[in-house]
Structures are given as C-alpha cells and as structure tokens.
Write a structure and sequence with these properties.
The protein is of the alpha/beta class and 211 residues long. Helix content is 49%, strand content 10%. The chain is globular, with a radius of gyration of 20 Å.
Length: 211
C-alpha cells in the first residue's frame, strides 16, 4: 500500500523556510499559481515584478523605455538580492530572471520550480491579457515568443522541478501538482551536516590540520 501524500503543513515543516521560486515564460501563470501555493503552505507570496516597479517608482514598460532591458535586468537582480535574505516565500519571478548566472546563485538557495506550458497556450494567454509586455511589442509577437522560448528553455530546464500545464488546468490545480511533486524533490536535496566535519590522522585520531 502506497504511503499517503504529506499534507501542506507537513511539507512546510520539511521545507524549513526554504523559498520557492517559480520560473517560466511570461504567460506561464507564475503569479496566479503562486498565490494558492503560498496560501496552502502558510508562506507569503511575492511578485518580483511588482517589487521592481515599487522600488523604481515606475511601471515595467516605463523602466524598459527609459533604461532598456539591461537596466531592467540590473534592477531585477538587485531586487532578487534583497528577496533572497527572506524566508518562507513563494516568489513569482520574471520570465528572464534565469538569463543571469548571478540570479541562479540566489534561486538555488531555495527550490526552483519551472511552470512549463506549450507555446500555443502561452500566446493565447498573453493575447487575452491586457498587461503590456515590452519584449513582445513587435510586429510578430508569436515569432518573438518562440525565439525567447527557444533561448530560455535550456535555462528553465535547470530547475529542481518542472510542472507541465494543460489548457484546462486552473491555477489551484497547478499549485496542487507542485505540492504533490515537492516531496520527491525534498528527499533528493542534501541536508547540511549537523556537526562540523572532523579531520582524522592515519591512526583515526582527531587532528587539527592536514600536516
């Protein structure tokens, strides 16, 4: 008989405050999924793009217009630096956060979860959403989306966990998929030793150094 799946409360205890970072393309539903996921775990939800806009005092399109993508990415990294000092968060990141190696240093302190979705589903969601998307403000947004997805998929693939979405899945259903998959990820993560490692000499006795 299979063991019962742990409850969300038990999962929160096993996470020990590790942040959950949701990554994926624009339109992947990171914010929509992040809220019920955080609620189930008793975590706080943070939308990184909202924090960026609050920090800059400008909207994301305004930041892109004045500072370009490089300026936006610099601000995104600074915000992630700050978020990483907190614990027990579910963080919805921007689609391009994975493109900077420094950002991965922060993401990998927690659990990185890729919300994967087919390009057709992403495009349909983006067309239906009135939120301005500076990177898609082109004559052929479908072509641009495909190029970005091809560039970023290998980076998203470095996440600890990948969750595929179906068109009929609601945000709450995706959050449930994440909760169901987390136990396997937590078993794989290596725990830090409880005590400092101790060096032994050739006779098996404790020694202060290698000499």
């Amino acid at each position: 008989m299979a063991a019962a799946s742990p409850s969300a409360g038990e999962l929160a205890q096993r996470l020990q405050g590790l942040n959950l970072y949701l990554v994926g393309m624009m339109g992947a539903g990171k914010s929509a999924v992040g809220r019920p996921l955080a609620e189930a775990l008793g975590y706080r939800f943070v939308d990184a793009d909202s924090v960026i806009a609050q920090t800059a005092g400008r909207s994301i399109p305004e930041i892109f217009a004045s500072d370009g993508e490089t300026g936006f990415r610099d601000l995104e990294t600074a915000v992630l630096d700050s978020i990483a000092h907190w614990h027990s968060l579910v963080v919805a990141t921007g689609g391009g956060v994975v493109t900077r190696p420094r950002n991965w240093g922060h993401l990998q302190q927690g659990v990185v979860i890729w919300l994967d979705a087919p390009q057709e589903l992403l495009l349909a969601r983006l067309i239906a959403d009135s939120t301005p998307r500076p990177l898609l403000a082109q004559a052929d947004p479908a072509e641009r989306l495909g190029a970005l997805l091809a560039e970023r998929r290998p980076l998203y693939g470095q996440a600890d966990l990948s969750v595929e979405q179906l068109e009929e899945d609601s945000p709450s259903q995706i959050a449930r998929k994440v909760l169901e998959a987390l136990p396997a990820i937590l078993r794989e993560r290596r725990q830090a030793p409880e005590a400092a490692a101790q060096l032994l000499d050739s006779d098996g006795q404790p020694t202060a150094g290698l000499n």
